[in-house]
């Protein structure tokens, strides 16, 4: 039986891509954050002065989960678009974007490099704009799915900048040891 694939066959083909890309993007993002000690609970991060615009810790986990799912779906759409003119460009930009994304937690949380982390975010914002423009040509929906990511990156860039402004010595900051001792003579 030679012929064009039916809509259900095309849908199943896309779903096979998505069943790989969504968990992979989510798992790698979660792993990058965990290995870097990202978020509250990191003694260095907890010791930083925070801007008033800093959301609670749970908001970051929720936002990144949603964003990684959207990224995985967008990537699946691009992979599924065999024969699309700019598919290879979009895939290369996606790979670069994900590498930058997964490197940010290590630079910020593990290495305590707030300034270089801000530069990575700036590159991610520029790269995402380029990716949206290219992905849009491959599949319009693949480009649209990247808009929430771009918005979050701009918000993250603002937070990163505010953290840098509030903590110019952040790299040298060494938090005291954690203890569960209760002082006997409170003064």
Reconstruct the topology from this structure:
Elements lengths: L6 H30 L6 H5 L9 H24 L6 H24 L3 H25 L1 H5 L2 H20 L21
Structure description:
This protein is mainly alpha-helical and 187 residues long. The protein has one domain: Ferritin. The protein is 71% helix and 0% strand. The chain contains 7 helices and no strands. It has helices at residues 7-36, 43-47, 57-80, 87-110, 114-138, 140-144, 147-166. Helix 1 (7-36) packs antiparallel against helix 3 (57-80), helix 1 (7-36) runs parallel beside helix 4 and helix 4 runs antiparallel to helix 5. The mean pLDDT is 90.
Short description, anyone?
This protein has 7 helices and no strands.
| Approximate shape | elongated
**Class computed from helices, strands and strand pairing:** mainly alpha
Number of helices: 7
The level of helicity is over 70%
Give the uncertain stretches in residue-range form. Answer: none
CATH superfamily: TspO/MBR protein
The H/E string reads HHHHHHH
> Which fold does the CATH topology refer to?
Ferritin
Query: What is the CATH level 1 assignment?
Result: Mainly Alpha
CATH architecture: Up-down Bundle
Straight-line distance between termini: 86 Å
Number of domains: 1
């Amino acid at each position: 039986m030679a012929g064009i694939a039916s809509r259900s066959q095309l849908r199943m083909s896309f779903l096979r891509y998505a069943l790989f890309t969504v968990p992979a993007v989510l798992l790698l993002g979660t792993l990058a954050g965990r290995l870097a000690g990202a978020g509250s609970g990191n003694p260095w991060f907890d010791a930083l002065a925070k801007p008033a615009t800093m959301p609670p810790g749970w908001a970051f986990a929720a936002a990144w989960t949603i964003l990684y799912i959207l990224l995985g779906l967008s990537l699946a759409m691009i992979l599924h678009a065999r024969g699309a003119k700019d598919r290879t460009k979009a895939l290369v930009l996606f790979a670069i974007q994900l590498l930058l994304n997964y490197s940010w937690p290590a630079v910020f949380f593990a290495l305590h490099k707030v300034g270089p982390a801000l530069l990575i975010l700036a590159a991610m914002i520029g790269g995402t704009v380029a990716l949206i423009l290219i992905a849009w040509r491959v599949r319009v929906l693949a480009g649209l799915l990247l808009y929430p990511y771009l918005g979050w990156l701009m918000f993250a860039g603002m937070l990163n900048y505010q953290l840098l402004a509030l903590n110019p010595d952040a790299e040298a900051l060494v938090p005291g040891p954690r203890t569960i001792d209760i002082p006997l003579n409170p003064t």
